[in-house]
Amino acid sequence: MVQTETLISKEETTICSNKKATKNEKKKIASCREYGGDSSDLIYKSGIPTLRASAHRVKFKIKHRKHDPRPVDRNGNETGTTWIPEELQEEQAFAYDTKLYDINGAVINLLRDCDPDIVGSFETSRIDESSSELEKPSFRLEDFRVPVSSVWRSVNGGCCEDAQKYLSNQVATNVAFVEIFDKFVTEMVLPYVKSRLVACGALESDSATCAFYYQRPPTLRLQPGPGWAKVRPHNDVEYGHQNGELNMWVPLTDRVLTGVDLWSETSFGEGYYHPIVANVGEAISWHGSSRKHYVNPNTSVNTRVSIDFRIGVEGYFDPLWEMQGTTDDHSRKKVEL
Fold it and tell me: What is the pLDDT of residues 153-162, one digit of tens each?
């Protein structure tokens, strides 16, 4: 009897192992077929496309949310907050002076101060032909390399969660970066948003005062390549944001070198996506709360870097409301203009 039980146990073990192997093989085949996830050319094979400086979290299960309104509008549900004017929701790309607002340089210095084993390091440096050997080499964000383990979750043997927390803290405490960001927002972005409010009649004139609540610090995103993963189509209301906000997306790397763009629905609920083309020195304004959006996979050998943030507009945005079930919500700074 003992021998029989032993044989059955071995047989069950063999069956389980075979089932697991078959399941893994199917997963491997599907990954290779659908995403190229097992391609030998890829370095980043996890399902996490970016390392981001934001600890914002949301519990998706409704039972974990403490009260209505339910923020997920995949099925047409709205947050109950007020929508900004339609004219302001229309996407636009506008230019800014990269010398006056050297966000790129500030991010380079920030990343150089980070622990290379956690966030990464610059693979190569180059010296401009016009510079002398005594001058410091200049760095390209495209050449920044993120450790593979930093885009794998801890359950899979990686350290994504710790890397994200570390980078979030570095961004929030880097005085030089935050100062450049504040200058960019208050001198460039908010006047731009206010001019659009005046143009559509939401504000009487330029002399009228309006309060803005902008996300501070912004979210810094590093998307290394080559990898297969992409950010899934989503809108920000799913994550506790309001329809009274306007999104800003600032690319810091060359889209030609990375092949990555911000893709967005043309209109709310349409389901048709198009790239919003912007180069370094331009910022994108669009209504990410309602329009689903995503970034495509980075199949290049370069790293895609960008910052993004949201601006709440007085009269449309409720600074006291938050979706229950979210953790580590974005901090805001109020500015009257």
Answer: 998 889 999 9
Say what the pTM is: 0.81
Q: How far is CA 89 from the centre of its chain?
A: 19
DSSP letters of 80-96? SSPPPPHHHHS-EEEE-
- Dist CA 97 CA 179 (whole Å): 16
DSSP string spanning 236-275?
GGGGT--TTEEEEEEE-S-HHHH---EEEESSTT---EEE
Its CATH architecture, for the domain 51-336, is Sandwich (2.60)
CA-based R_g, the chain, Å: 23
CB within 8 A of 5, min separation 6: which ones? none
Q: pLDDT tens for residues 219-269?
A: 999 999 999 988 888 888 777 788 899 999 999 999 999 999 999 998 877
> How is the chain split into domains, by residue range?
51-336
